[in-house]
Amino acid sequence: MKHLLTATTLALSLGTTAIADEITIGFAIAKSGWVEAYDAPAVAAARIRIDEINAAGGLLGKQIRWIEADTKSDQAQSASAGLQMVDEGADMLIVSCDYDFGAPAALAAEGAGLNSFFLCAEDIKAGIQGVGPNSFSASVLAAVQGATVAEWSVQERDAKTGYVLLDTTIEYNKGICTGFDWMFPKAGGEIVGTDTFLNGDASIASQITRIKSLAEEPDVIMLCSYIPGAASAVRQIRAAGINSTILNGSAVDGSYWLDAAPDLSNFIVPVQGSIYGDDTRPAVNALRDAFEAATGAGPSSTYAYPGYLLIDLWAKAVERAGTVEASAVTAELEKMDNEPTAFGPRSFSDQLHHQNTAEMQIVEITNGKPGVIGSFTISEPVPLDVLLK
């Protein structure tokens, strides 16, 4: 019996040593269901950065390993997946792109005293305001996207009038319109009408009738929506003979949906990084190529990139803190002010764990083909009181 106990103790000791020599990241992400389309590319990019760090010697001298659990695009399952990752010894959690589907897992991390990062959430609640002090997103707030295209359209396209068409289905859409509503008049434009619809609506005929009843066609239509509802709305707007510049947020980035709106032109999307190899920053194009080499295909949308960014920023904070302990890492993240990254500077504070200003690539779709036409940064950050509306 004595020999058996000694052997068991030795085995446990060796196991503990092995685990102590690693840092574990838990992915509570959608591997099935509709959220997978957003999560999978960002996870792939996150793992590229993990591999780079490991190849360079690791983090705090330790290799990073990852474990995962499938949320199945279900909020209840998200909570279970988060708890599973905590139970399996994760040192930090990465959760789904969308706030509503990532928050239950992030709350599990918060309850366990761990850091969490949303893969690409752009709702302010995916952070201090909704989850807690140790939760972050490396992505650019939806309101910043709306504010960016608002100011860009006034400065670059001499837009004077705008019509707002809000899909009220998810919080992300509301954020885009909030940013546009704040910036467009501030930049010199006039909002001449607003309307709402739901993503699943088969028809927006009544909304189109109200647009066509205006004395003059608006210079821009701010369409705050996502696929498939956004594609349906665009098709109907163009079929009605309305030629206004249509603006949207990053949720419609990518060419995968363009068959639903044949030969679309005069459509603008702001993105953190181009997926077409034409970004104005060489480092982003290099990452796009690395993504293709690693996965066999280029990213389907800009939402791959925040996965790489979050690992990069978290790892820097861990190195500076000298630990993965959440409060120490949070303190280092909150010190980041214009931290250099491949996508331009990133900042966090004790008031905001998102980006409320960022250099955005402006993608225009012309004759059904998307491409970068330049970059743009809003003239001032979106104020916290606007973000909290």
Automatic annotation (TrEMBL):
InterPro entries recorded: BCAA_transport, Leu-bd, Peripla_BP_I
Keywords: Amino-acid transport, Signal, Transport
One Pfam family per UniProt: Peripla_BP_6
Similarity comment text for this entry: Belongs to the leucine-binding protein family.
Organism: Roseobacter denitrificans (strain ATCC 33942 / OCh 114) (Erythrobacter sp. (strain OCh 114))
Signal peptide: 1-20
Keyword match Signal: yes
A Gene Ontology BP annotation from the UniProt entry: amino acid transport
Name of the protein this chain belongs to: Branched-chain amino acid ABC transporter, periplasmic binding protein, putative
Domain Leucine-binding protein, chain residue ranges per copy: 22-368
